[in-house]
């Protein structure tokens, strides 16, 4: 009994360490956090693309070594592909309806998510290929590793892991502001997708698809419908 508890604690401590390292690699070199000296941030800003790819590579190596992608290729089975497609379509509809309700219930002054402004400002300073890579590849993979794969491993009760994942993902993006409820629907959809089989590949594809649709669909519609 004691040995089992000890082993469980060791596993969770290792997961927590991996989680923290991944968080620092993914977001620790952002100037707004102020973790490192100013000179470090000047360097990362001037070499954003190289630093982005380097840290992402380290995150992927750590994830692979810790078995995060053990179910990844299962997504290519028809059953799982249909599940992903269902969640993409259903998730987008649910998120759109939730956002419509959100904008009806909040004033214009607080309706636009603060995180959206930060992201827009950040992406405006980087080349198109870099911020596209961040939005559709690096961001979804890293955030799914952090908020789903590793966070889930810290909890024995998976319903609790699901709840914490939903709340923390939305909170990290917005803080406890009105905008928290803007991100909550997406967080719920992606977390439920992961919760089904604990297969990170499915939630990564869903997360990336939602980012893609949310960012480019309005422009496409404006182009097609003058």
TrEMBL record:
<dbReference type="GO" id="GO:0004175">
    <property type="term" value="F:endopeptidase activity"/>
</dbReference>
<comment type="similarity">
    <text>Belongs to the UPF0177 family.</text>
</comment>
<dbReference type="InterPro" id="IPR003675">
    <property type="entry name" value="Rce1/LyrA-like_dom"/>
</dbReference>
<keyword id="KW-0812">Transmembrane</keyword>
<feature type="transmembrane region" description="Helical">
    <location>
        <begin position="49"/>
        <end position="69"/>
    </location>
</feature>
<feature type="transmembrane region" description="Helical">
    <location>
        <begin position="12"/>
        <end position="29"/>
    </location>
</feature>
<feature type="domain" description="CAAX prenyl protease 2/Lysostaphin resistance protein A-like">
    <location>
        <begin position="128"/>
        <end position="213"/>
    </location>
</feature>
<dbReference type="GO" id="GO:0005886">
    <property type="term" value="C:plasma membrane"/>
</dbReference>
<keyword id="KW-0472">Membrane</keyword>
<feature type="transmembrane region" description="Helical">
    <location>
        <begin position="204"/>
        <end position="225"/>
    </location>
</feature>
<dbReference type="Pfam" id="PF02517">
    <property type="entry name" value="Rce1-like"/>
</dbReference>
<protein>
    <submittedName>
        <fullName>CPBP family intramembrane glutamic endopeptidase</fullName>
    </submittedName>
</protein>
<keyword id="KW-1133">Transmembrane helix</keyword>
<feature type="transmembrane region" description="Helical">
    <location>
        <begin position="159"/>
        <end position="184"/>
    </location>
</feature>
<dbReference type="GO" id="GO:0080120">
    <property type="term" value="P:CAAX-box protein maturation"/>
</dbReference>
<keyword id="KW-1003">Cell membrane</keyword>
<feature type="transmembrane region" description="Helical">
    <location>
        <begin position="81"/>
        <end position="103"/>
    </location>
</feature>
